[in-house]
Specification:
It holds the Pfam family HGSNAT_cat. This protein is an all-alpha fold. The chain is about 60% helix and about 0% strand.
């Protein structure tokens, strides 16, 4: 979703209108590597709590990964699309890229059964596509001040919808898992056949909660606008971003008192907390990598970052393929090739099943690092 530039072709933080930030690629790389880690444990029955999502209200480090990625999408938009109003020829490309991402997500949901009657329609890539589409079009037609007003309207409006509007068939506003307004909309329009199967009647990437997810992208856009400023120095940009991150995260924690932090509902407090922490993370990366020029140690993360969508798609597809391949155990039972490899190669050295499960996830990340590092050294960037 950004121009293909090698690290050697990057402009410095003091250059006018930098085309790409190595720190942003590294931050994206860390985010997608963590996404692969938490999505591919060796054993889903034995996972350390920080590597799981919060059951409902509250948050864990894992709950920050997806909003960090959407935040990065927003930052990337400001560098990829240039000045607001420069929309000639871009709208068609934006729509095409969004459609491609959405269809890739649908393919993952279809595979391997390809059943139109039960396929899940929402998903991670689908939400990324929608956020990218809306935020890109907003960026082309609005000023940063208007983007800020839109963000506030979305966050306050969503809070009002979820806490004040009575849920049809229930009679009162609530934030319970299966009877809140977002869940009602999912099962009414998508129907239970096309939502996340473990949730049965609602979807964590559902329709209404995509609205505040756009807010996460807008926070990223506002951050990108700040980093693109040329009238202040790099140190001032870092200090301003760090201060904004602290205040935004604090606002999210305060809002949690009457609109709980909740990833599944993507509550406004969750947008603020995750967005603020993302600002802090990017500020640190920007200071050390782009300002202080400590770049060599960031390159492994950059290898993940420049092909982020590709590795996310393939890391979701390949385990499903391995799950289709069956291997006979000694007791005569067939297990998937993925399970067989974990049980007989990765797990045996460990006595704690949680450590074995974590080792399985880290092995998967390491394998992808080898592939992505080779692509990076060959300057191969697969655009989506």
């Amino acid at each position: 979703m950004q121009p293909s530039l090698t690290p050697q072709g990057l402009l410095t933080p003091e250059s006018p209108r930098p085309a790409r930030l190595l720190s942003l690629d590294a931050f994206r790389g860390l985010t997608v590597a963590c996404m692969i880690l938490v999505n591919n444990p060796g054993d889903w029955g034995h996972i350390y709590p920080p590597l799981e999502h919060a059951h409902w209200h509250g948050w864990t480090p894992t709950d920050l990964i997806f909003p960090f990625f959407l935040f990065i999408v927003g930052v990337s938009i400001t560098f990829a699309l240039g000045q607001p109003g420069n929309s000639r020829g871009l709208v068609g490309k934006i729509i095409k890229r969004s459609a491609t991402l959405f269809l890739l997500g649908l393919f993952l949901n279809f595979f391997p059964k390809f059943n139109l009657l039960t396929v899940r329609i929402p998903g991670v890539l689908q939400r990324i596509a929608l956020v990218y589409l809306v935020c890109s079009l907003v960026f082309l037609r609005t000023t940063p001040r208007q983007q800020l007003y839109l963000l506030l309207a979305i966050l306050v409006g969503y809070w009002g919808l979820m806490t004040l509007v009575p849920v049809p068939g229930v009679g009162y506003a609530n934030l319970e898992p299966e009877i809140n307004l977002a869940a009602w909309l999912d099962r009414t329009i998508l129907t239970p056949a096309h939502v996340y199967k473990p949730a049965k009647v609602w979807d964590p990437e559902g329709m209404l909660s995509t609205l505040p997810a756009v807010g996460t992208g807008l926070l990223g856009m506002l951050t990108g606008n700040w980093l693109r400023r040329t009238d202040i120095g790099a140190a001032e940009r870092v200090a301003g971003l760090f201060a904004a991150g602290c205040l935004t995260a604090l606002a999210g924690l305060c809002w949690d008192g009457f609109f709980p932090i909740n990833k599944a509902l993507w509550t406004s407090s969750y947008v603020m907390l995750a967005g603020g922490l993302a600002m802090l993370g990017l500020a640190l990366f920007y200071w050390f990598i782009d300002v202080k020029q400590y770049r060599r140690g960031a390159l492994p993360l950059v290898a993940f970052g420049v092909n982020a969508i590709t590795v996310f798609f393939l890391s979701g597809l390949i385990p499903r393929v391995l799950g289709m391949l069956k291997v006979a155990e000694a007791d005569g039972h067939d297990v998937s090739l993925q399970t067989y490899l974990f049980r007989h190669i990765i797990a045996p050295p460990f006595t704690d099943p949680r450590n074995a499960s974590l080792a399985g996830a880290l092995t998967f990340v390491l394998i992808w690092f080898v592939v992505l590092w080779w692509l990076y050294r060959k300057n191969v960037i697969i655009k989506v």
